[in-house]
Amino acid sequence: MIQKMKEEIELLSRHIVIARAVVDNQPIGIMKLAELLNLPSHRIRYSLHVLEQLGYIKASPDGAVATAKTTRLLSRLDSDLNDLITLLNEMKTER
Question: What is the tens place of the pLDDT at every residue in 3-15?
Answer without folding.
Answer: 998 999 999 999 9
